[in-house]
Amino acid sequence: MIGTVLDKYEVVQKVGEGGMATVYLGRHTTLNRDVAIKVLHPHLSSSTRNRKRFAREARAIERLRHENILEIYDYSGTDSSECYIVTEYIRGETLSDLMQPVGRMPSEVAATIGLKLAEALNYAHQAGILHRDLKPDNVMIRGDGTVKLMDFGIARFLDESHVTMTGALVGSPAFMSPEQAREGNLDARSDLFSLGTLLYHLVTGHLPFSGSNPSLILKNIIEGNRPHVTELAPTMSASLADLIERCMQVDREERFNSAAEIEASLQACLAEVDFDPDAPTWSTTAYLKDPDGYQERLEAVLGEVLLRNGRVYLEEGDHLAALRLFNRLLTLDEDNAEVLALVQGLHADSPTVRPRGFILLFAAGLAAIASAGMWWVGAQVADEPPGPEVPAVDAGLVDAPSQDAPGVEPPPPVPPSRAEEPVEEPTSLPPEVAPSPESGEPAVPPKRTLHRPLSLPPKVRLPKLGEPVSTEALLAVAEPAYIDIRTHQPYMAYIYEDGERIGDVRQRKPLEVTPGEHLYVLRAEGILDYELRVTVEPGGHEQVFVDELQPRPVKVVIAPDFSDGCAIFVNGEPRGTVGQLGGEVTLKEPQAENIVVLDCGDEGVFDRTFANLDTLFPTFTLSAGDQ
Question: Dihedral through CA 165, CA 169, CA 170, CA 171, nearest 10?
Answer without folding.
Answer: 120
